[in-house]
Specification:
By secondary structure, the chain is of the alpha/beta class. The protein contains 25 helices and 36 strands. A hairpin with a 4-residue loop joins strand 14 and strand 15.
């Protein structure tokens, strides 16, 4: 028996979400065919901003792989655009001539970006920001161009501007309104947002109206001119001034369209065989451009495609978040206020916190939050449900946890939530879906939940709530985050408790720690011994004694073990600088010890791979060079570009700065590996934007960034401050590293430490408190003072037994 044919035009989030819902409730109902104009499977468009910012790769934002389509027997046509719908014959025709018949047709054609009708709009270098192609174009342009102008101070424009700035471009944002996000924020919150983004290096031109985009004889954009006569240079212009429903295909088929495809509450068009969802739709006079309403439409549409005949879509209440790391804002409903409304306002400009709640007829009708958005989801729920708030008024401004035993809040928001309450707004995941996945699939961690449900996998603001749900479902089986979990099974004490005990009680040895904290295992284990060893050394430098047996093999041997049991030696070349004499010695060593591979590392050093353990000491002696810390929980290389010494774009001597930092931090142990980079100009050739400490030279000094990570999950460093002198670079970066060394938990990268304490805390300790900064820096220098060269010590005979191979006797 042949199944009816469902054809989906549009492979984006709305159309595929409808199919996902349909497969859940009626998996065998249709023979499904999907057409997508792009050459990719379905991906998360709301995460294009993190891709542009370098925080995620495109592969990370794919929602449904090609295997998913195959597993669900869905025929997918990529890179094909439907150009005609023949409603009489019930078929669609693609631009390559492909014809497919349908019994039901779902239009999910999305929207098209609005292009300002100004002279120069067609110049090379003028683009929109809508899909992965636009994103990749911006990434590639940022590698070779300097000036970007983003037209539009809305959500998309600010995300584009932030990403381009992180990619090394000088970015000006042009906005017609008096404040940023003037459709999502009031003027006070908009001003706070502007200051935060200006601190990151963005420039704002507002209110400004674009008159012309100027180009050269090659047809390339060179500048943007405004109606007041001002002009700014531009190698790239990004139009982010709005979208329009893409309804041209529907119009050509004779469907009723008016600023979008007109649909009923069942998402049916004028033709009952044809449905439509997403940004292409006009429902009750409204076209939605945010993802949450699209997912609500998808659920109702799938219900009717499955012929269950229930469910109506009656419109959505919207909320807004900005996907710029480190900036928290939320707005929903009538946050500006209108006739008959009253405002409750909490304003702390110095602390960067602003909250405004709008009340009407004893109901919350709007909310605008900046700086502290913890309770955004709770306010949104109150707003959507229209609950009377008379009994909450006294504490409502202070959030759900302040309500206590009133029945709404309490200590666990998750426990009070209904299964139908939404947890993840980005992906439309409710509590019930998460609970069911935890129980049915045996999930134990947040990462498990992300993979199975997509909750917390986008902007991450709901991660804490997902953790609460896991804890409520699993109890003691929940695998906690490092900030709350015990160091290991030998003790119930957390990392924080252990550090505090060592500091407050002047504990200097493992035995003193284990005795004082009543460790269950007298000698500890392979998990806790390295952590305790680090906490002792970092808390009491020159007093606590290093215990080599509490270190991993790399740190005992001072070389990096490889999978075949051999080791890697990376001669130290500070700042990546070497000379012909060193290169000759490296070549001689490679020949003498028959080194299988000589390779240049990502940190601009030479790696001798495959050195036998028993040869390590002799290799170091013959090299006559210190080795590089490329193996332990310690300072790694300081990557540099050429800088002002030779590069025609260089503004400062980045090479010397890299050498100075690597010299200053020599032999520094830390909670995890620490990587630094120094770029000689905003082109950022040394990739300072993804390092634990990144230093970028500008005309007037240096910009410092912290918390970057180029590992499994790329994290873009956050702007810490701007300084003028090389000595300030060393002081500020050294103070940050010492704060990290003293307060981070063992095996925490800097990004995890910053996530825990917050960047504002870091700035308060390092940037704003000069006396504390100097104290931190002095403590760092003291801890590093007089440390022995471990390679010279080994050449002199220290730990000789470590390098003697074990002989197996038959």
């Amino acid at each position: 028996m042949n199944k009816p044919k469902l054809v989906v035009v549009g492979n984006g989030m709305a159309g595929i979400r409808t199919i996902e819902e349909l497969l859940t409730i009626a998996p065998d109902r249709y023979d499904i065919t999907v057409f997508g104009s792009e050459p990719h499977p379905n991906y998360n468009r709301i995460l294009l901003s993190p891709v542009l910012a370098g925080e995620q790769a495109f592969e990370d934002i794919i929602l449904n792989s090609l295997d998913w389509y195959a597993e669900n027997n869905i025929t997918l046509h990529t890179s094909k655009t439907i150009t005609r719908i023949d409603r009489m014959r019930r078929l669609v025709v693609a631009d390559d001539g492909t014809e497919v018949q349908y019994d039901r047709l779902l239009l999910a054609t999305g929207s098209t970006p609005f292009i300002l009708p100004v002279p120069g709009k067609d110049l090379k270098g003028v683009i929109t920001y809508r899909d992965i192609y636009d994103t990749e174009t911006m990434i590639e342009t940022a590698k070779v161009k300097k000036h970007a102008v983003v037209i539009g101070g809305g959500l998309l424009g600010l995300e584009a501007a932030n990403g381009l700035k992180l990619r090394g471009m000088a970015v000006s944002v042009v906005h017609l309104g008096d404040w940023l996000l003037d459709r999502q924020l009031d003027d006070t919150a908009g001003a706070l947002l502007r200051k935060s983004l200006e601190d990151r290096g963005l420039t704002f031109l507002m209110p400004k109206q674009t008159a012309e985009i100027v180009g050269n004889d090659l047809g390339e954009v060179t500048s943007v001119r405004f109606k007041d006569g001002d002009e700014v240079p531009a190698d790239l212009v990004v139009m982010a001034v709005g979208i329009r429903p893409n309804s041209s295909l529907a119009e050509s088929a004779g469907l009723h369209c008016d600023r979008g495809i007109k649909v009923s509450d069942t998402l049916q068009t004028f033709d009952p065989r044809i449905y439509a969802v997403g940004e292409c739709v006009n429902h009750r006079g409204v076209a939605y451009g945010l993802v949450a309403p699209l997912f609500e439409q998808a659920k109702v549409c799938a219900n009717h495609l499955a012929q269950h005949g229930i469910g109506q879509y009656k419109g959505s209440v919207l909320s807004t978040k900005l996907k710029v790391t480190g900036i928290d804002l939320f707005s929903a409903g009538d946050f500006m206020g209108s006739d008959g409304t009253e405002d409750i306002v909490l304003s702390d400009p110095a602390g960067g916190v602003y909250k405004k709640l709008v009340i009407k007829d004893d109901q919350l009708v709007g909310a605008c939050l900046y700086g502290d958005t913890t309770d955004g989801a709770w306010y949104f729920k109150l707003l959507r449900e229209g609950r009377k708030i008379n009994d909450l008024r006294e504490h409502i401004m202070f959030g759900e946890s302040a309500i206590g035993d009133s029945g709404v809040g309490g200590q666990s928001r998750a426990a009070a939530m209904q299964d139908s309450d939404e947890v993840c707004g980005c992906n439309g995941v409710c509590k019930g879906t998460i609970v069911k996945a935890i129980k049915d699939k045996g999930l134990f961690t947040v990462d498990d939940v992300k993979k199975q449900t997509k909750a917390a996998s986008s902007c991450g603001s709901c991660t804490g709530l997902v953790e609460q749900i896991l804890m409520n479902c699993l109890g003691s089986s929940f695998q906690e985050t490092p900030k709350t979990k015990a160091v290991c099974g030998c003790t119930d004490h957390t990392h924080a408790n252990v550090r505090k005990a060592i500091r407050e009680n002047h504990l200097l040895t493992h035995k003193e720690v284990y005795d004082f904290l009543e460790w269950r295992t007298p000698n500890g284990c392979a998990t806790c011994r390295p952590a305790v060893n680090y906490y002792l050394l970092s808390t009491w430098p020159h007093e606590a004694k290093d215990d080599p047996q509490s270190r991993f093999v790399n740190e005992r041997v001072h070389a990096n073990i490889q999978k075949d049991g051999t080791f890697s030696v990376i001669p130290q070349m500070k700042g990546g600088v070497t000379n012909s004499s060193e290169l000759r010695r490296i070549a001689d060593v490679a020949d003498k010890y028959q080194v299988p591979m000589v390779k240049v590392t990502g940190g601009q050093r030479i790696d001798l791979l495959g050195v036998k353990k028993e040869d390590l000491v002799n290799v170091w002696q013959d090299l006559g060079m210190q080795s590089g810390h490329a193996y332990g929980k310690s300072i790694r290389t300081v990557k540099t570009c050429v800088g002002s010494e030779f590069c025609r774009f260089g503004t400062q001597n980045s090479t010397q700065m890299g050498i100075d930092l690597e010299t200053m931090l020599a032999n520094m142990w830390s909670p995890h590996k620490v990587k630094l980079a120094v770029s000689g100009c905003p082109r950022n050739c040394a990739e300072a934007g993804i390092k634990d400490v990144g230093v970028i030279a500008v005309d007037s000094g240096w910009e410092l960034y912290v918390g970057g990570n180029g590992g499994i999950k790329t994290e873009v460093a956050q702007f810490l401050c701007k300084v003028k002198t090389a000595e300030e670079v060393k002081e500020y970066s050294g103070a940050f590293l010492q704060l990290y060394r003293e307060e981070a938990y063992y095996l925490d990268r800097t990004v995890h430490y910053i996530e825990r304490v917050g960047l504002d805390y870091i700035k308060a300790k390092v940037v704003e408190d000069a006396a504390n900064r100097r104290t931190l820096f002095e403590r760092l220098l003291y801890s590093l003072e007089g440390l022995p060269d471990p390679w010279a010590a080994r050449i002199a005979g220290a730990q000789k037994n470590e390098y003697i191979p074990i002989k197996v006797v038959a």
